Amino acid sequence: MELSELAVGMEVSVCATIGDQTLSFPSQIKGIADNKILIDPITHNNKPVGFKNPAQVAFLVNDNSKIFRFAVTSIVLVKSRGNIYHMLELSGMGTAYNRRKNYRLYIGEEMRVTIFGANGPELITALVKDVSEGGFCIITSKDIDPKFHLRLHFQDQKFATDLPANIVRKIPGNRPGEFLYGCSLRIKSDSLSKYIMRSQIERTNRKKT
After folding, report:
1. N or C: which end of the chain has fewer CB within 10 A?
2. pLDDT (tens digit, 9 = 90+) per residue, 33-43?
3. How far, rounded to the nearest angstrom, does the alpha carbon of residue 168 sit from its chain's CA centroid?
4. CA–CA gap between residue 100 and residue 183 (Å, rounded)
5. Residue 45, SS3?
């Protein structure tokens, strides 16, 4: 993807590695000037986030359900026409990016999901298709705005945890009125990684017997 293909209004995410955690912040392109991009400010606890090392930041663009990654050379807070933005300076072309390169564990069970939308939290039940160290996939008839973030209340007989995530892909499901949502974890979970590893070993051993 070329820099020239970026457009105001595109949905984007800024992924930052902080210590041993990778956080994902959804945003939207508000302005473009050459290789400089203005986006809605990234905030945490209602305060703008400061990014000290641009090498630890990835700029991801969602273009018709395809994700592209651009290298970031700088990211700073700026004020323009009375509004606060994060300005990113990008370099090179955007390369195709697979958020979930890790092993995907098939689940196929219904679980509770909280949607954090414009009108506050809403609890629904959705079919969890699979989970990985980087995210999960759910199927539901609920039409969810990709700008909203989710929390999957994952639970089976051996493991339970809450998984906050951003929606990175929304496509029609196999049945009329259904939607499939690909979600990227906002914070990586060591306990989830261990659960997936144990489950993978158990399933492999069952196949051998």
Report:
1. C
2. 888 999 988 87
3. 5
4. 9
5. coil
Look up tokens 């958020």; give the residue.
99
- Report how far residue 62's alpha carbon sits from residue 23's, in angstroms, rounded to the nearest whole number: 17
> Which amino acid, one-letter code, is at 200?
Q
Three-class SS of 124-186 = EEEEEEEECCCEEEEEECCCCCCCCEEEEEEECCCCEEEEEEEEEEEEECCCCCCEEEEEEEC
Quote the DSSP letter at residue 97: -
Alpha carbons 150 and 121: distance in angstroms, whole number: 9
- Residue whose tokens read 């509770």: 112
| Lookup result for tokens 């306990």 | 191
User: What backbone torsions phi and psi does residue 4 show, to the nearest 5 degrees?
Assistant: -65, -15
Q: What pLDDT, on the 0 to 100 scale, is given for residue 20?
A: 47
- The tokens for 12 are 């984007």
Q: How far is CA 81 from CA 21, 23, 31, 56, in A?
A: 34, 29, 12, 29
Q: Are 90 and 3 in contact (CB under 8 A)?
A: yes
* pLDDT score of 189 more than 90: no
Residues composing the chain: 209
Q: In 3D, which of 67, 142, 139, 78 has the Cα closest to residue 106?
A: 139
